[in-house]
Amino acid sequence: xxxxxxxxxxxxxxxxxxxxxxxxxxxxxxxxxxxxxxxxxxxxxxxxxxxxxxxxxxxxxxxxxxxxxxxxxxxxxxxxxxxxxxxxxxxxxxxxxxxxxxxxxxxxxxxxxxxxxxxxxxxxxxxxxxxxxxxxxxxxxxxxxxxxxxxxxxxxxxxxxxxxxxxxxxxxxxxxxxxxxxxxxxxxxxxxxxxxxxxxxxxxxxxxxxxxxxxxxxxxxxxxxxxxxxxxxxxxxxxxxxxxxxxxxxxxxxxxxxxxxxxxxxxxxxxxxxxxxxxxxxxxxxxxxxxxxxxxxxxxxxxxxxxxxxxxxxxxxxxxxxxxxxxxxxxxxxxxxxxxxxxxxxxxxxxxxxxxxxxx
Length: 360
Hints:
Layout: E1 6-9, H1 16-28, E2 33-35, H2 49-57, E3 67-72, H3 95-109, E4 116-119, H4 125-131, H5 137-143, E5 150-154, H6 159-166, E6 173-177, H7 186-194, E7 198-202, H8 214-226, E8 230-235, H9 239-250, H10 259-269, H11 292-303, H12 309-316, H13 333-337, H14 344-356
Parallel strand pairs: 1-2, 1-8, 2-3, 3-4, 4-5, 5-6, 6-7, 7-8
Helix pairs in contact: 1-2, 1-9, 2-3, 3-5, 6-7, 8-10, 11-12, 11-14
């Protein structure tokens, strides 16, 4: 079963009933991959995304039409290694911990196997190395090799760090942030296309920010639909959102703009002659772990497109260290690498003032 272009993110469901209705609508629409995790929608051991996904797809009319993916990580969800927290899927650093984690996910879902398993939230060389230490995450995964089919990795890191992960040859898919205001990882996208690794684009609407404007919402989804070898991971909450995504898919042949033309149109909506970061990603890696282009995408939306919600969206994502502009030490390394010769440090200072204003 070839992975559908649009796939179902299971991180934003409201409750069990709406999750089931949304998943069934998605599968009926032809969206045949579901991405879940131990911590999504978690209330307790019985009310959580994995349990809701499992109940929905165990229906005999649906299981054979969909692939399911779940995941865990040696990390803490950010840039560090984690303490063992099986309820959320963090800090998995031994064969025994992985065994407990994997069996917990299968029990929650009521399945005897999964189609895809992912090395989750792996953003640094330290986290990646930890996963492959003898007796660690990967060895635990291989103990269950008859209970999964495909291996992927999920990350927020920059292209320079990510491509060596992929060069290991371990992964068939990679899940990364990608949207019209966050194009900083396109070099990794190109690498994946050239090497037969599927790209799953998470945050296609920048955590819901781009959905605040109907025109930008449509352009954002259509841009991703235009990208070769990219599958669009949407965190659906209702059958109505499924119907909208299906409309996007069904009308792509009637939509005139190419991918570059869509980006040009979004760029024109910013209406500025100021020196502005375009999120190309060539300034990475940052010594502080900031993905500068991704972080400045929120500033662009807030400052140039007058999307006030961009500030709230940015502040709501400060648990992601790659967006922590307040960690910048103005060392200037990004500025020396910028192909457009932008005054990156000055832009970061302006972005800090705008986005962190009013924060204690």
